[in-house]
Design a protein that fits this description.
alpha/beta, six-stranded parallel sheet, Dihydrodipicolinate Reductase, domain 2, 2 domains, Rossmann fold, 15 helices, 450 residues, 21% strand
């Protein structure tokens, strides 16, 4: 069992990394990319002009989409766009995937010619008729595709996490501001109306000063989370571009475990931290009415149940021992003193309830409402009440519709680039803390890790 805090050995080296290596990979010198200051609640690049005004596409004009990465998540998005096509005046013009089986199946599902399906996503971006790109690739490709898409004049819907590294997040943010293109990160909980009702209540002082927000994302998968089926027909010699899939990740021979189960490995993702926690972090930040960057984050965890070793053949597990934790927890603290606590597990599904604690009252979520319960010393001042919630719930199609509305009418997407940058900072700091077994610190003014 691997636990943070063990003395360094071969296993710990795999989990851990030197601070120099992490800073190089995660871009601790983000200030060199874009030293930011808060202007009207958004981050502006130092020395840069005002962000380009986003283009607005009229309601009567068709929005043309491309889907890049059409595995399970990408296929789901393709189906959402198809389902919304008549109501929202949408069309899918192209798809891209490195594996021919997925690529051709997606083209067939979208009803487009095979000639408009590509292994190389850059071919998609050459099509000037495409307005919006949906990115559902492994995490290590998010930033480059998003940056290329915006520079090619496309709006972006990018699955969470926003990027694999912090450096990439700042670069992606900078590109969005320079091009004026909209970015919606795929934490669909941000479109759930309850979080916006909560944020307004916090702004109105209904719970006093926010102290701590808590939440969790917990599952229990006896087979090991992310151990998706391996399709033996995938063959880099005939029908799959393995080198393209690897991209900037370390080069290695074909490994179906890494291809199909990539979320288990640091080279491509970061497990619970990046796959699951953004679904809590983005909405909680909205509910806290918080647009600050964190200044310190601590994250603990371990591989307790699922190392993916085969007990009958320890030298040959499913592919190799997984990197990421199956149980972990995190605290992020902000300069104003407020904190977020999260629990994450893939081996126990009982998570903590979503809750925001204020000095005068506590805020609960459930039953289609936001409930405020005062602390005992403040019952004369704070009213116990249920705040009605009118609007969409946590729904991917509604999240797509939010971006579509912003493209057509102007406005800021619910999981916009500014919010996503702050959440990615928490995610990257949590990974750093977990892998180094120490608290991660961030200089908010200089916009870099300390």
């Amino acid at each position: 069992m691997k636990r943070s805090g063990l003395k360094v050995d071969n296993k710990q080296e795999k989990k851990g990394l030197s601070r120099r290596d992490f800073i190089k990979a995660a871009g601790a010198t983000a200030a060199g990319v874009v030293a930011s200051s808060l202007v009207g609640g958004s981050v502006m690049a130092q020395g840069a002009s005002a962000p380009a005004a986003p283009s607005v596409i009229g309601a009567n004009e068709r929005l043309n989409y491309a889907i890049i990465g059409v595995g399970g998540m990408g296929s789901g998005h393709l189906n959402h766009i198809k389902a919304l096509s008549a109501e929202q005046n949408l069309a899918i013009l192209a798809v891209s995937d490195v594996w021919d089986k997925r690529r051709l199946a997606a083209a067939n599902s979208a009803g487009i010619p095979e000639s408009q399906s590509f292994r190389d996503y850059r071919k998609v971006l050459e099509n000037k008729d495409i307005d919006v790109v949906v990115i559902a690739t492994p995490d290590h490709w998010h930033a480059q595709i998003a940056i290329d898409a915006m520079q090619a004049g496309k709006h972006v819907y990018c699955e969470k996490p926003m990027t694999r590294t912090l450096d990439e997040a700042f670069k992606m943010h900078k590109t969005a501001k320079e091009t004026g293109k909209l970015v919606q990160v795929g934490s669909q909980g941000c479109t759930d109306a309850k979080w916006h009702v909560a944020g307004q209540a916090v702004k109105d002082g209904k719970i006093g000063t926010v102290l701590v927000a808590q939440g969790g994302y917990c599952r229990n998968n006896p087979n090991g989370e992310w151990n998706w089926p391996i399709d033996d027909s995938a063959d880099p010699k005939t029908n799959l571009d393995w080198n393209m899939w690897l991209g900037k990740a370390p080069k290695r021979p074909w490994d179906p475990d890494r291809y199909f189960r990539w979320r288990k490995f640091w080279d491509y993702g970061n497990g619970i931290i990046g796959d699951l926690w953004p679904h809590r972090l983005h909405p909680l930040m909205i509910a806290m009415n918080n647009m600050e960057f964190p200044h310190r984050v601590v994250c603990l965890g371990a591989n307790i149940m699922h190392t993916d070793r085969n007990p009958n053949d320890p030298a040959h597990p499913f592919g190799e021992e997984r990197d990421v934790a199956d149980a972990t927890q995190m605290i992020a603290e902000f300069p104003n003193g407020s904190m977020i606590y999260l629990l994450g597990s893939t081996v126990n599904e009982l998570g903590p309830e979503d809750l925001i604690r204020g000095n005068k009252a506590n805020m609960f979520f459930g039953g289609g409402k936001v409930t405020i319960k005062p602390e005992r010393p403040w019952t004369d001042e704070i009213e116990a009440q249920d705040l009605p919630v009118v609007g969409p719930g946590e729904d991917q199609r509604e999240h797509h519709k939010n971006l579509i509305k912003c493209i057509r009418e102007g406005g800021t997407p619910n999981c916009n680039i500014d919010l996503a940058l702050r959440v990615q900072t928490i995610v990257s700091m949590a990974e750093l803390s977990y892998r180094q077994s120490k608290m991660a610190l961030f200089d908010v003014e200089k916009q870099k890790l300390i």
